[in-house]
Specification:
It is built from 16 helices and 25 strands. A hairpin with a 4-residue loop joins β7 and β8. α6 packs antiparallel against α12 and α11 runs antiparallel to α16. The termini are close together. It binds fructose -6-phosphate. The site of fructose -6-phosphate (F6R) has 15 residues, from α8 and α14. The site of fructose -6-phosphate has 15 residues, from α8 and α14.
Length: about 600
């Protein structure tokens, strides 16, 4: 869960890497480092702390050269410190590596390397990689990297440099690594290359990309301005297409908002509509596949997992179909049920979450067909799926997922209607929902929620209840509040309250009741009464006011699309709770945007 960047071009590399790294800070932000290569010398600057706290003027002018690498770290092995920051070097300082992921057998390799006389400066798993390359140095840089990665177990992406070479080498095995190419094919001797864990790192420069697949190595030669891809398993070179991904740099900027989280919440005015913009034939053909599969499962993690659970309810209610949700980290334990007639629907914003990728790999072994809903085009999940839908939410930079979640909900709802043979009805409902979201997201609405946040931000505990379609949104509300404001929040199915959680209610404990105009409305309201009579402070998120509410947040009545409109005010509340408590909602402590480790 780190961000890595590489650059080769005509511009002085250090400032380019500095700017690119800042764009990847959401992936990890406890330390940073960068290194350039010039006249066969490495120039390195690394430290603990956030790259965005480093002033541009403080980048040493001694970072010379037109090629280099950068790294933003989220610690897994070894505390955040200068020594543990990347890049890491071998004993003689000839090879340098930045790395994202985990090397599972690093301890064993480290012991072997120590016995051979290598000495280590850090506690990281990464540091063994330059030492391994050093071990095979006599084979030349490319061959040495091949041999070194052949020894590694785990999921990772690395970028390596050699002091005596003008080549930059990247290897991908389970963690993302994407090549950006500026100036295209025609002007090949002016081409500039970027290597990064995610596209926003180089969107200021280009939106033309080449994707590495797992088990692939890329070799970029600065002198020849050439690029070569090699499959490490098949031991052969592979050709890649240059793909224009259609995102622009503005989409990945804050555009006047103080935080990405608020900007992305407000973007839901448009993103829900974009998610619905799908090819009708593809939707209908997927609906057929779902209808004809023998056993369909949803899988995802965190917020995407809550969307899956909502999908389970939506499919049951709208299409009379039972689809089981299994959280991805548990999915491999369910392999007994899988056959070649099973369909697995995987939902992921990033398309790079390790648990999701493991789940689909386990399923593929049983010849299960994989369908995915994903935001990042060309991500591992997008490419490994038999059928893939892009939710088109644009780059989501805040760690807390907001706009991706509502886009996923919209598309799942559309698919459920298609399975029920009511695609047009579903489309009409969702277009109306998108337009009502547009009306909701105005400054007055935000201020009303901010006022609520001002009343409750000092509380230590919050509870959220919902039933049916809104039970998963109660779970999702809890994730949103916890992760950005650090208030302990828990979501329950309304009916479960009396089986334990009621004991937690004290005078003034804020409890959110998520309500829709549906058949469970009265039950949720009576659950809210139960809480109120024990002293709880009831926040009703509902189309209509009710005497049980101490604070009412109005949402439109949109029938089966209620999870979309009910989660949005909680996203806004979570944001303001975080800001009032002095937390940066874009960078919650201990979390990273895409969880590329198990
Ligand atoms: C919470 C959040 C995480 C992600 C989870 C899965 O706001 O963002 O819970 O939802 O890590 O990520 P993706 O969707 O990229 O697979």
């Amino acid at each position: 869960m780190c961000g890595i960047v590489g650059y080769i071009g005509d511009t002085v590399a250090a400032p380019v890497i500095f700017e690119s790294l800042k764009k990847l800070e959401y992936r990890g932000y406890d330390s940073y480092g960068f290194a350039t290569l010039h006249n066969n010398d490495f120039f390195v600057k690394k430290d603990k702390g956030k790259i965005s706290d480093l002033e541009f003027e403080n980048i040493p002018e001694t970072l010379l050269g037109f090629m280099g690498v950068g790294h933003s770290r989220w610690a897994t092995h070894g505390i955040p410190s200068e020594e543990n920051s990347h890049p890491h070097l071998d004993c003689k300082g000839n090879f340098l590596v930045v790395h994202n992921g985990i090397i599972e057998n690093y301890q064993e390799l480290k012991n072997e390397l120590k016995q051979r006389g290598h000495s280590f400066r850090s506690d990281t798993d990464t540091e063994i990689i330059p030492h391994l390359i050093e071990n095979f140095a006599e084979l030349g840089f490319e061959e040495a990297v091949k041999k070194a990665v052949g020894k590694l177990k785990g999921r990772y992406a690395i970028v390596a440099l050699n002091r005596d070479s003008d080549k930059m080498i990247g290897v991908r095995r389970g963690s993302p690594l994407i090549v950006g190419v500026k100036n295209g094919v025609k002007d090949s001797d002016r081409r500039e290359f970027f290597l990064a864990s995610d596209i926003p790192a180089f969107l200021d420069h280009t939106n033309n990309v080449m994707y590495l697949d797992d088990e692939e190595m890329v070799v970029i030669d600065k002198n020849k301005r050439s690029i070569k891809f090699h499959n490490l398993e098949r031991k052969e070179d592979v050709e890649k297409r240059l793909i224009n991904i259609g995102w622009d740099a503005g989409q990945a900027e804050k555009n006047g908002f103080e935080h990405f989280m608020l900007k992305e919440i407000m973007e839901q005015k448009d993103t829900i509509m974009r998610a619905l913009n799908q090819d009708v034939k593809s939707i209908e053909s997927m609906a057929d596949k779902i209808n004809n599969a023998f056993g369909t499962f949803f899988t995802g993690c965190g917020t995407a997992g809550n969307v899956c659970l909502a999908g389970e309810y939506i499919f049951s209610k709208v299409a009379g179909k039972h689809i089981n949700f299994i959280v991805s980290s548990e999915f491999p334990n369910y392999h007994h049920f899988l056959t070649d007639k099973t369909l697995l629907i995987a939902i992921s914003q990033s398309g790079e979450t390790a648990d999701v990728l493991e789940a689909i790999e386990a399923a593929k072994k049983k010849r299960v067909k994989i369908m995915s809903l994903v935001n990042v085009m060309g991500s591992s999940l997008d490419r490994k799926s038999d059928y893939s839908f892009l939710i088109k939410a644009g780059p989501e930079k805040a760690v807390a997922s907001t706009k991706a979640a509502t886009s996923q909900l919209a598309l799942i709802t559309l698919l459920a209607y298609a399975c029920a043979g009511k695609l047009n009805e579903g489309r009409r409902l969702l277009i109306e929902t998108a337009s009502k979201v547009n009306d909701m997201l105005n400054p007055r609405y935000e201020k009303h929620i901010r006022r609520l946040a001002e009343k409750i931000y000092k509380k230590d505990n919050m509870y959220i209840i919902g039933r049916s379609l809104n039970y998963p949104m109660a779970l999702e509300s809890a994730i949103k509040i916890q992760e950005v404001s650090y208030i302990h929040a828990q979501g329950f199915a309304g009916g479960e309250l009396k089986h334990g959680p009621l004991a937690l209610i004290d005078k003034g404990t804020p409890c959110i009741a998520l309500i829709a105009e549906d058949e469970v409305k009265d039950d949720v309201i009576s659950n809210a009464m139960e809480i109120k009579s024990r002293g709880g402070y009831i926040i009703g998120v509902a189309p209509e006011n009710n005497e049980v509410f101490d604070y009412w947040i109005r949402v439109p009545d949109v029938g089966d699309a209620s999870p979309i409109v009910n989660i949005i005010p909680v996203q806004i509340l979570a944001y303001h709770l975080a800001v009032l408590r002095g937390c940066n909602p874009d960078y919650p402590k201990n979390l990273a945007k895409s969880v590329t480790v198990k």
